[in-house]
Amino acid sequence: MATSLDADTRPIIPDDIARIVVAPKSYTDDATIYGAFKWLREHMPLGIAQVPGYDPLWIVTRHADIREVERNAKLFHNADHNPVLNDQASDAFTREITGGTTRLLSSLTYMDPPEHASYRTLTSNWFLPGKISKLEEQVRVLARQSVDNLLSFDGECDFVRDFALHYPLRVIMSLFGVPPEDEPKMLKLTQEFFGVHDPEEQRPEMVADPVVAAKQWAASIEDFYTYFDRLSAQRREQPTDDLLSLIANSRINGAPIPRDEANGYYVAIATAGHDTTSSSTAGGLHGMMAYPENWAKVKADPALIPGLVDEAIRWTSPVKHFMRNATADTQVRGMDIRAMERLMICYPSGNRDEAVFADADRFDITRSPNPHIAFGFGPHMCLGQHLAKLEMRILFEELLPHLASVEMAGPPRLVETNFVGGYKALPIRFKKA
Ligand code: HEM
Questions:
Q1: Stretch 314-339: mean pLDDT, rounded?
Q2: In its keyword annotation, does this UniProt entry include Oxidoreductase (predicted)?
Q3: Which residue lies with its CA nearest to atom 25 of ligand 1?
Q4: Which tens digit of pLDDT belongs to each residue from 246-302?
Q5: What ipTM does the predicted assembly reach?
Q6: Is any atom of ligand 1 closer than 6 Å to the C-beta of 127?
Q7: Residue 16 pLDDT > 90, yes or no?
C-alpha cells in the first residue's frame, strides 16, 4: 500500500539526489553515495524522496535525527510496512505470496513492541558483553587458523575472497551450531539474500525478472527454512550448548517458539552474523591502506586495536538502511511527519555527519569518542555488536604482528546493495613480518 505524501509545504529532495540514495548501484561508489549524503545533510537533512516506482519516503541523514527516530520504537514502527526498502512492485509480489503482509521473515527486525521485546529477551543474555568475553579463547583459535591460512598466500591475495569472508563465518557458525561442512552453503545463501540487487549474486533463472529482488529474497529464505527445519528438530531431540539449541528450545508465552519465529531468528543470525563483520574487517584494512599513518600507529601500539575496530565499523557502515513507519502525526527537526509515512534511516550518512565527527571522511583509528551508529540505536540496536567487536579485535591482534607491510594491489569492488553489504574484493600485496 503506497502512502501519499502531501508535499506542498514540505521539502522535496531533488530528483537526482533521491535516485542516488535509493539505487543499490550507488553504494558501489563511495564518491557517489557519500556525495549525495553530504548534500542532503547540508541542504535537506530531512526531506521527501519521490522516486518513480517507490513509495514516497522521508530520507533521514543526520546522526541526531537517526537517533531520535530509532529511540522511539512506539512512534516509529519497523513492521507496519517493509523494514527493508523495496520498490512497489516487489512489495506487491511479497504481499501476494504472504497473503497480504510484507513480513516474509519473522525475525526481530520485523517486530514491534511488545512482541519484539519478548523475542529479543530469548537470546539477549547470550549476547551480553560478559558472556561474549568468555568466548575469547575459542574465537582466538579460529583467528589463528585464519591468519595462518592468509600467510600461506605468497605475498598477494584478495583479502575478501581469501580471508575476510571466511573468518566471521567460522566464528558465528561454530557458536551457532552449524557444522563446518555447511558453511559454504550458508555463505552462498547469505550472498544471495543480501545481494538481491547485484547482478553477480542473482540466481540465473531470476535475473531478467522485474521483481528479481523480492523473488530471490523469498527463495533464499525458503532455502534457509528448509535447512534450519532439520537442524532445529535435531536440537529439540538432542539439545547441546549452542545458540541454535537455545532458540530451538525456547518458549514464548508458555508454548514452544513457533516454526516461523525460530526460523526468522536463525536466518537473521546466519546472515547478519557474518556478512557485516566481513565487510567491516575488510574496511579496517582498506582504511589503513588508504590512510597509512594509521598503520604505523597501530603497529607501534597494539592498544589502538579497539579504536581501529570501531573506526572500521563507522567508516564502512555495512548496514546501509532500515525503514521505519510513523504510527502517528509527529515532528522531527520541525518537519511534520504524518501517520503511516515511511522513513529511510541512512546509517552511513549519520556516520559521516560533520556535526559529530571531525573530518568525517577520514579513516582515523585514534578518533575518540567515536559515537558511531553503525549498529543502530534504541531497542533494535544490533544484538550481535559485542560479538562483532570481539571477533574483529582478536583478528587484528592475531594478524597485525605477522604483517610487516601491506598495500593495495588493485581497486576494491563493492556489492551493489542499498541494504547490507560492502566489499566483494580487496586485492592486496603484503610482506610477512
Ligand atoms: C540488528 C549492524 C553484526 C545480529 C542490526 C542493526 C544494525 C546492525 C544497523 C539494526 C539496528 C536498528 O534497527 O537500530 C551490524 C553491524 C555488524 C553487525 C555493523 C558488524 C560490524 C552482527 C552480528 C550478529 C548480528 C555478529 C549476530 C551474531 C543482529 C540481529 C539484529 C541486528 C539479530 C536485529 C536486532 C533487533 O531488531 O532487535 N545490526 N550488525 N549483527 N543485528 Fe547486527
A1: 97
A2: yes
A3: 384
A4: 999 999 999 999 999 999 999 999 999 999 999 999 999 999 999 999 999 999 999
A5: 0.99
A6: no
A7: yes
- Cβ of 377 below 6 Å from ligand 1: yes
Of 269, 343, 370, 375, which is best to mutate to test ligand 1, by the most ligand atoms within 8 angstroms of its C-beta? Answer: 375
Q: What is the SS3 string spanning the chain?
A: CCCCCCCCCCCECCHHHHHHHHCHHHHHCHHHHHHHHHHHHHHCCEEEECCCCCCCEEEECCHHHHHHHHHCCCCEECCCCCCCCCCHHHHHHHHHHHCCCCCCCCCHHHCCCCHHHHHHHHHHCCCCHHHHHCCHHHHHHHHHHHHHHHHCCCCEEECHHHHHCCHHHHHHHHHHCCCHHHHHHHHHHHHHHHCCCCCCCCCCCCCCCCCHHHHHHHHHHHHHHHHHHHHHHHHHHCCCCCHHHHHHCCEECCEECCHHHHHHHHHHHHHHCCHHHHHHHHHHHHHHHHCCHHHHHHHHCHHHHHHHHHHHHHHHCCECEEEEEECCCEEECCEEECCCCEEEEEHHHHCCCCCCCCCCCCCCCCCCCCCCCCCCCHHHCCCCHHHHHHHHHHHHHHHHHHEEEEEECCCCEECCCCCECCEEECEEEEEEC
Separation of CA 15 and ligand 1 centre (Å): 31
Ligand 1 proximity of 120 Cβ (cutoff 6 Å): yes
Expressed in angstroms and rounded, the spacing between residue 156 Cα and the centre of ligand 1 is 32
CA of 5 to the centre of ligand 1 (A): 30
Superfamily of domain 15-432: Cytochrome P450 (1.10.630.10)
- With a pLDDT cut of 90, the percent of the chain lying above it is 93
Cα 45 to averaged position of ligand 1 atoms, centre (Å): 25
Q: Relative to the CA of 373, which ligand 1 atom is closest?
A: 9
Return the pLDDT at 5.
58
Taking the centre of ligand 1 as the mean of its atom positions, its distance from the CA of residue 419, in whole angstroms, is: 12
Confidence class for position 195, pLDDT limits 50, 70, 90: confident
Per-residue pLDDT tens over the stretch 105-132: 999 999 999 999 999 999 999 999 999 9
Please identify, by atom number, the ligand 1 atom nearest to the C-alpha of residue 378: 14
CA of 421 to the centre of ligand 1 (A): 13
Domain-by-domain residue ranges, the chain? Answer: 15-432
